[in-house]
Automatic annotation (TrEMBL), chain B:
InterPro entries: Cro/C1-type_HTH, Lambda_DNA-bd_dom_sf
Annotated Pfam families: HTH_3
Cited PANTHER family: DNA-BIDING PHAGE PROTEIN (PTHR46558:SF4), TRACRIPTIONAL REGULATORY PROTEIN-RELATED-RELATED (PTHR46558)
Keywords carried by this UniProt record: DNA-binding
Boundaries of every HTH cro/C1-type domain copy: 5-59
Gene Ontology molecular function terms on file: DNA binding
Tree of life domain: Bacteria
Protein name, entry field: Putative transcriptional regulator
Classification via CDD domains: HTH_XRE
């Protein structure tokens, strides 16, 4: 095994760190927004020493996680010298997905901010706030028409059979988690043991399990 | 499934990326096959067999030790 092979074989762990760090930054940013909203709700004004220390703690966490992302991405870039043709196409398409996903997230965030909907501190993906019909139709068109075309191309041209197998396994795990988990939550709610089932939370769990198993099977 | 892929690759001084390019798969796929974490499909096994000019059973070992039917 060459050095480049060894570096490439550690990319799964690095990618996991990048994802976990990214989620950590989003959650910490949400905690900052929630903290400031609570401060405003209690009358606002200047932050005391405890408030400043708390915000400094949040800032330190975000800085540390950002450093972890930078470090792992740098190492992944260094190991990408010998990418095969399929890997290059796969990588470029995934970068494209991340950019488009980020652009949609920013669009929704800017819209929510412009109409003053962010006072709950919720992430845009969990927001139930109304959006203009034109924006809704554009996003639905992207999700229902453009996405399947890109997904078809990705399956046919970018990924190989090992990744296709890993992706299928992710789908099995996610499907079983949904088939078992969703009715269980519904029954627990009816029995008074759990809050009402949340469609967005179920979707996010389904997608997260699928992605986690896919990456685990691909890089393990 | 145990296999000789790593040895055959080393004999040609190929990296996993080089072999991946020959087989049109990723380095992760080559690594997963070499370490026995993924069994290739029959078409990919034939492709490997042709690339190294060896029969499939000389590259892959399913560790079957039972008697043959014939």
């Amino acid at each position: 095994m060459t050095d480049a092979d060894e570096m490439a074989n550690n990319n799964g762990r690095r990618m996991l760190w990048v994802i976990v760090s990214g989620l950590g930054i989003m959650m910490t940013a949400g905690a900052v927004a929630g903290y400031l909203a609570a401060h405003e709700a209690q009358g606002g004004g200047a932050l005391g020493t405890a408030g400043i220390v708390t915000l400094c703690g949040f800032a330190a966490i975000i800085t540390g996680l950002a450093f972890a992302i930078w470090r792992n991405v740098s190492k992944m870039k260094a190991s990408n010298e010998g990418l095969t043709r399929r890997e290059k196409l796969n990588r470029n398409m995934i970068y494209g997905f991340v950019l488009v996903g980020g652009a949609i997230g920013l669009l929704l965030t800017f819209y929510d901010t412009s109409v003053g909907n962010l006072d709950t501190g919720a992430l845009p993906i969990f927001s139930d706030n109304p959006v203009p019909p034109v924006m809704a139709l554009m996003l639905v068109f992207f999700w229902a028409v453009i996405m399947p075309i890109i997904a078809w191309f990705w399956h046919k041209r970018a990924i190989d059979e090992q990744e296709a197998s890993a992706y299928r396994d992710g789908g099995y795990y996610a499907a079983y988690a949904f088939l078992i988990g969703a009715p269980m939550w519904w029954i627990l709610w009816r029995g008074g043991f759990a809050p009402e089932p949340d469609g967005v939370a179920i979707f996010m769990l389904f997608a997260s399990i699928w992605t986690a198993v896919w990456l685990w099977k691909k890089y393990r | 499934m145990k296999n000789q892929l790593k040895v055959l690759r080393a004999m040609r001084s190929w990296s996993q990326a080089d072999l991946g390019e020959h087989l049109d798969v990723s380095r992760q796929a080559v690594n997963a096959i070499e370490t026995g974490k993924y069994d290739p499909s029959l078409p990919l096994a034939f492709k490997i067999s042709r690339l190294f000019a060896l029969p499939i059973e000389e590259i892959f070992d399913d560790e079957f030790e039972g008697a043959h039917n014939d």
